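Table S5 (text form). Sequence records supplied for joint modeling of the two-component complex.
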Amino acid sequence: MTEYLIRRVLQSVLVIFLITILTFLLIHAAPGGPTQVMLSPGLTPEIFEQQAKNLGLDQPIPVQYVRWIGDLLQGDLGYTFKNHIAVSDLLWPRIGNTVILMGSAWLVSLLIAIPWGIYNSTKVYGLSDQTASFISYLGFAMPTFWFGILLQQWLSLKLDWFPLSDMYTRGKEGDIGDLFMHLVLPITVLALGFLASYMKYARASMLEVLDQDYIRTARAKGVKERKVVFRHALRNALIPIITILGLDLPILVGGAALTENVFNWPGMGRWFVEMAGAREYSALMAVTIVTAVIVVIGNLLADILYAVVDPRVKLGKQGGKTA
Amino acid sequence: MAKKRKWWSGLLVLSLVGVLFTGCSTNNTASSPTNAPAATAAPAESAAPDATEAPAADGPVDGGTLVTSTFSDIVNLNPLLINDTSSGDVAQFVFAKLYNLDREGNVQAEDWSLAAELPEISEDGLSYTVKLKDTPKWSDGQPITADDVIYTIETGKNPETGSPLISQYDKVKTVEKIDDHTVKFTLSQIYAPFLYALVQEIVPAHILKDVKPTEIQTNAYGTDPAKTVTSGPWKWTAWKQGESHTLDADPNYWGTVKPHIAQIVYKIYADQNTEVQAIMKGDTDHISAIPVTQVEAVKADGDIDIIQKPGAQYEYVMFNFDGKNFPDSYGLFAGQKTRQAIAHALNRQGMVDNILKGVGALMNAPFLPDTWADPGDAAVNYDYNAETAKKLLAEDGWVADAKDGILTKDGHRFSFELQYNAGNSRREQVAAVIQQNLKDVGIEVTPKAIDFAAWIDQNVTPGKFQALLLAWSLNTPDPDAESIFSSKYFPPAGQNSGWYKNEKLDQLWVDGYSTVDQAERKEIYKEVGKEISTDLPYVFLYQYGQAIGTGPRVHWAEEDAPEPSLGYGQFFHAIKWWVTD
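The corresponding structure-token record, covering 904 residues in total, follows.
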């Protein structure tokens, strides 16, 4: 297990390193540099050149890369071109805000989706299952920003039950109750989306397992249905669900740009889109690194959880899953 | 180069649709650069007709917080580097200028201006002597003196700084200190628009004088509120990046007129839609741009006062005169009659009525309607008439193809690409109308939307395109536009992106700024209007504007109402506004 972990981590470091090179090349290849976005387009090329020089953008891309990665190894994520603000000062608060929003939406949806999906797998096409299907369709079909605007119009502007947007009311920064009120609408929007897919996965995965021979054997032996479902079926059914959850982990930090826009949530998704438009290379690289790391961790966690829920899975050199 | 900065305005409307519909793609955000639009002289009687609707309650009260908002954060508050609308907005509150504009766009020494009186201009028109008040102080208590003014101009002019002010002061030969409160500018040539270059914020020499010009940009002055010494009625207390700025009334403000509002919160929303929702909810009190499509909904809300009037910006279709941009190097727009035909073929009034919902005015020359330089009837007006258009095209040698009806000449099809910036919903609609209108006369147009940064970089600045749909924001009320129409300013060093050359006009522009006599200038610009509307380097479309919205908490006397025709006019005389709860 330990050896396996070390191997995985080393692999991951290499992958992340390659990702940074690729991303660095790609974002520098995008037409229009930071100065084009900072300055009004009507100015002379000399001003653009001078500003680029003042910002170190006149150096060849490999030089810029080496400089960037050198700083990174010392824990420095660089500065924005626009206003020379440390990227880490901008990045971490936003990741925090996004984790609060996405994490709560994710938890809420898991707590509803998994039990409900399992229940529905035992009563296929029952009323509950039909309702769940309908909600899933809604979740899949409705554009999130549109659902968000709908909720705002109705629950905030019309009924005034919840705040319209932002994370806190002005002057109440840090107040948990206020934060909770601000979370309700965006969580509803996001959770609906998560719910739709998790419920389907849980149900489908259970159904597949419940059809297996060993379940039939268990039932034939006279094991109680409850025990069949929870002891025999669930553990196996959880494996694909864990895979999905592991893969979804980056969303928790990556954020949801559209939802964050509609609710004016100061999170990562919105920030990333903004930084991309401004060609803020350091900020974009920082997001790439963080996301890459989370993807790797997510996969690793999923693999470890397999071993926990399914004793047949052995993580190791031979014969094990190294996915 | 540029005598006067005229800025491509693309991003104001860009954010909303761009962000919403492209999601996480890396394009299309309106981040920083926009224009600092500015003033144009508008007749007094048309000023802010809706302003009186803001109830004047029982006279001003002191205190309270005004929340105003926008949809992109500032870049840098250092006046040497301010080059985007949001930074310019905040600067209105925290910095005093040498001179200010009045509602008609005239340069004035107001109570809150640093200068004591209008500049003394020498007989030969080459030197301007500016007398400062002796009361102004920086927020750290230091006096504002001639040294600050000289430092600002010299650092702005220094190419190493990379300051956008360089173009504004390129005709300044010397700036001299006469005494602590008197500065003399000497120009290298007579240049009438220079007066407007004096409507300018000043930076504190005592803070910045030891910073190398190349390091001004990365210096904390302008990005760290604690290190940014200011000179205006409010000071910059806090900046939460991407969220809000807090400006508090400066208790030591030097002016005789003190602000009523104790605190201004400048909030940043994700996009215009979110902002409009916020003003309807009462989360913000003042927004500068309500999208045309939402104005009706906001009006229906009832609580929001809307000021809607065309501003200092106009839209146009630019032709490219460089044949290299066309197949076989055959310039499609070479014929004057062809260009005139296109002008006739476009239903400009229809665009104003249907797309701008009436908030716009047709233009035939690059001068805003109702300003002193407006040539009026001297400019040729092209009415919407497909028959006239077809006739002119036929006279110019275009013949309809037997198969699909598209015009051809010497074996070349009249088919071109019309570029505009992606995400701008107004331009998207206008481009569609242009496509349809020109199809009616046998011209094939392919509208193409491109990400703003990429577009400016690869097409607009180098002058590589066939035709463009774009706008200019005028940042001073002066009519001079040499830098965008003269053949002295070809790409990539200049803003004449369409490679337009007209020797008569080249000379007229020079004549226009080489005298300070307004009556004389008016005659010259009339001639410019006549020539440019006949020759048509652009089809001038219309002057347009953004709707300003204010909530019920904000009040002003009628003479202090926002003035859309001025740059930053949405905050006109904010020092005299007040808020109630």
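Note: The CA atoms of residues 103 and 252 of chain A lie 6 Å apart.
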